[in-house]
């Protein structure tokens, strides 16, 4: 199922992220993401954004500093573009599973994440996918990063430009939904 809208929330009592996604057919799926899985998922997403940066990093410090600045500015711009929307309600979920595998497929224009359920248990062959362009990916990463900080999880997986963008962007009231 392809998800068109996703609400991302860190759930303290579960110590996990909950993605409540609305599929094209109107059904709702709840996906649970652990810290371990997200620590493996963030680097390929950031690498994809690196490939789409207007400057390519090299070994020289001035260029690397410029790349950081470009990323930080692009991140701030993407987060500023978030608009409040109605959340996808987890209580309406037809499916609910702990994600154990995520396929990351990239193209020049977009990144697609396909979330897979455990092999055993009632989910069967079902999977949920979401496709994002660079702006939507930056918005979602901004949401995840903000809640990651609130969770008190280790920050080592995040690039420096993400922390800089977060520090320079005014806090938004609950921008946890993206299209």
Molecular structure report:
It contains four helices and eight strands. The chain is α+β, with helices and mostly antiparallel strands and 179 residues long. The protein has a five-stranded mixed β-sheet. A three-stranded antiparallel β-sheet has the order 5-6-7. The C terminus is likely disordered. Helices cover 36% and strands 27% of the residues. α2 packs across α3 and α2 packs across α4.
- Please give the share of residues in helix: 25-40%
Shape annotation: globular
Euclidean distance between termini CA atoms: 15 Å
Q: What is the strand arrangement across the widest sheet?
A: 4-3-2-1-8
Structural class: alpha+beta
Brief summary of the model shown:
By secondary structure, the chain is α+β, with helices and mostly antiparallel strands.
Overview features:
single chain, 179 residues, alpha+beta, five-stranded mixed beta sheet, three-stranded antiparallel beta sheet, 4 helices, 36% helix, disordered C terminus
Question: How does the SSE layout of this entry go?
Answer:
Elements: E1 3-11, E2 16-23, E3 28-33, H1 35-51, H2 61-80, E4 93-98, E5 101-106, E6 111-116, E7 128-132, H3 134-151, H4 160-168, E8 177-178
Parallel strand pairs: 3-4
Antiparallel strand pairs: 1-2, 1-8, 2-3, 5-6, 6-7
């Amino acid at each position: 199922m392809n998800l068109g809208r996703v609400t991302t929330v860190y759930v303290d009592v579960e110590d996990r992220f909950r993605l409540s996604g609305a599929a094209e057919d109107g059904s709702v799926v709840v996906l649970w993401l652990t810290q371990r899985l997200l620590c493996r998922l963030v680097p390929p997403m950031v690498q994809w954004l690196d490939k789409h940066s207007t400057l390519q990093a090299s070994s020289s410090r001035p260029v690397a500093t410029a790349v950081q600045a470009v990323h930080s500015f692009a991140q701030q711009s993407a987060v500023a573009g978030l608009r409040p929307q109605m959340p996808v309600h987890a209580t309406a979920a037809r499916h609910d599973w702990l994600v154990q595998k995520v396929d990351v497929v990239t193209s020049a224009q977009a990144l697609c994440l396909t979330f897979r359920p455990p092999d055993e248990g009632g989910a069967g062959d079902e999977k949920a996918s979401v496709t994002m362009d660079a702006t939507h990916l930056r918005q979602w990463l901004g949401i995840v990063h903000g809640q990651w900080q609130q969770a008190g999880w280790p920050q080592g997986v995040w690039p420096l430009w993400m922390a800089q963008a977060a520090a320079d962007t005014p806090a938004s009231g609950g921008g946890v939904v993206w299209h």
